[in-house]
UniProtKB/TrEMBL annotation:
Keywords: Acyltransferase, Lipid biosynthesis, Lipid metabolism, Phospholipid biosynthesis, Phospholipid metabolism, Transferase. It is an enzyme of class 2 (transferase). CDD domains: LPLAT_AGPAT-like (cd07989). The keyword Transmembrane does not apply. It comes from Actinomycetospora aeridis. This is 1-acyl-sn-glycerol-3-phosphate acyltransferase. Its EC number is 2.3.1.51. One of its GO terms (molecular function) is 1-acylglycerol-3-phosphate O-acyltransferase activity. It catalyses: a 1-acyl-sn-glycero-3-phosphate + an acyl-CoA = a 1,2-diacyl-sn-glycero-3-phosphate + CoA. The HXXXXD motif is essential for acyltransferase activity and may constitute the binding site for the phosphate moiety of the glycerol-3-phosphate. Residues 301-416 form the Phospholipid/glycerol acyltransferase domain.
Length: 469
């Protein structure tokens, strides 16, 4: 949970953002937005994939060991792209954001950027990392402009050279110069980017010193919690062990009850209830729910939820208790332990690359809703999103609700990515907030108007996710 001082700084700064006129320029530096190096994330991906040149190996290993991100690291990264086409690199950058860099996004900064967007401000993301590295970050952030180190290309083919200066120096002067002469109302950066901070009417340092005490120099400071690293802490391991211990214990007890009563449904429902309550409690994860009455008022129904973390499954267990099943991508069937649980619960596995197979897999789900009174839980994004930004909704859940003639209930999950980051296997303590929205009546839906209903429901999610909390 945010500290009292952090809440005070955020509240004060949000008030200043709301008071600033539309069109005001807000500069967000990567040192404020990201708790770890974007250059290091890409260097690590290249090392794991075997693309790192022998000559770059010592420097990149030192970078990953914490030696520091510098101009030489940027140039090494860009040199490794020689001969690649820009489209391939863009896809890889999106994958690195999804699997690695997304966990480094500071939620405090994300919420402030959303405040700027609501106020109609011009958001500029700055960084010394190359443009292809920061482009997917800027896209998910909704930034209006990206100022980054440029790379040279001949047509679509990258040359492996930097075009112009690397935007990295001791005071952030190169980034400040790249902004031109425009007036800057707000600037967010680490304490080393003095030139950027000095440009702004409202500067804010976003940093945590090694001692845990924020360091800001002459500027106001937003204290942020450390994001941690790739390695789990002993506490994280214990939380995770407690969670999975509860899951296995619940499954064992439920199996005995189910066998005694010859009811697979009771076995699954008991597992859901115990895992959701005891497992999350042992993991140190609290769940605060607004609109809980909507979880029960319109069953059977199709529950749709935004998907950021593997812990979302356990959250649904706690929220829905029982009487539901789900739809998952085909790969989920092979996840250790969870795959077996999904199969036991009657989850429909869908091959997203095979439209005909997907439709056939969804038919049993429609029958369970229409004929057996089960509810269905589906993530309409189809996969976990790397950032708090909501992905595009697929139509599968909406076709099911239409065919079964049941309501749709949106479940908006906040902060799940903070208790289990994407790509991580361990849990962190914290609080997850959930807004359950009123049921959406589907009785007037038709195939011809389905696209409109998809956008309407997605807009409801966006309004809650991007609203001030």
């Amino acid at each position: 949970m945010p500290r009292r001082s952090e809440l005070s700084v955020l509240d004060t700064h949000r008030a200043a953002v709301r008071a600033a006129p539309a069109g005001s320029v807000a500069v967000v530096d990567e040192t404020a937005l990201l708790a770890s190096s974007a250059v290091a994330a890409h260097a690590g991906e290249a090392l794991r994939s075997g693309r790192t040149a022998w000559g770059a190996l010592p420097g990149d290993v030192a970078l990953l060991a914490g030696a520091g991100d510098d101009e030489a690291a940027v140039r090494r990264l860009v040199a490794g792209w020689a001969g690649e086409d820009a489209t391939t690199l863009a896809r890889r950058a999106r994958t690195v954001l999804r699997d690695d860099l997304g966990a480094a996004l500071r939620p405090e900064m994300w919420s402030l950027v959303m405040e700027h967007r609501r106020a109609g401000h011009h958001v500029v993301l700055t960084g010394h990392a190359p443009r292809p590295v920061l482009a997917p970050v800027a896209e998910d952030l909704g930034a209006d402009e990206l100022v980054a180190t440029e790379v040279a290309a001949t047509g679509e083919e990258l040359t492996g050279e930097v075009a112009g200066p690397v935007l990295l120096d001791g005071r952030g002067e190169r980034k400040a110069a790249a902004l031109g002469e425009r007036a800057v109302a707000f600037a967010y950066a680490g304490p080393g980017a003095a030139a950027l901070l000095d440009r702004a009417e409202h500067p804010l340092v976003v940093a945590v010193a090694e001692s845990g005490t924020p360091v800001g120099g002459p500027w106001p400071v937003l204290p942020t919690e450390p994001r941690g690293g790739a390695l789990a802490t002993p506490g994280d391991v214990l939380r995770t062990a407690g969670f999975y211990g509860a899951l296995l214990g619940a499954a064992g007890t439920a199996a005995a009850v189910g066998l005694a009563r010859r009811s697979r449904r009771q076995m699954v429902d008991l597992t859901c209830s115990v895992t959701g309550d005891v497992g999350l409690a042992l993991a140190g994860i609290d769940v605060e729910v607004t609109g809980a009455e909507h979880l029960w008022s319109s069953r059977p129904c199709v529950f749709v939820f935004n998907h950021q973390s593997k812990i979302d499954v356990a959250l649904l267990m706690k929220l829905l208790r029982g009487g539901f099943t789900g739809v998952a991508k085909a790969e989920a069937a092979s996840i250790p332990l969870w795959g077996a649980m999904f199969r036991l619960a009657g989850v429909a596995f869908v091959d997203r690359g095979n439209t005909r197979q997907a439709k056939e897999a969804l038919e049993p789900a429609v029958r369970k809703l229409r004929d057996e009174g089960w509810s269905l839980a589906i993530a309409p994004e189809g996969t976990r999103s790397p950032t708090p930004r909501l992905g595009r909704f697929k139509k599968g859940a909406f076709h099911i609700a239409l065919q079964a003639g049941v309501p749709m209930v949106p479940i908006v999950i906040h902060d799940a990515g903070e208790v289990m980051w994407r790509g991580h296997q361990t849990l962190r303590g914290g609080t997850v907030h959930v807004d359950v929205l009123p049921p959406v009546d589907t009785s007037s839906w038709s195939v011809d108007t389905l696209a409109e209903h998809v956008e309407d429901v997605r807009d409801r999610f966006v309004a809650v996710l991007e609203g001030a909390r």
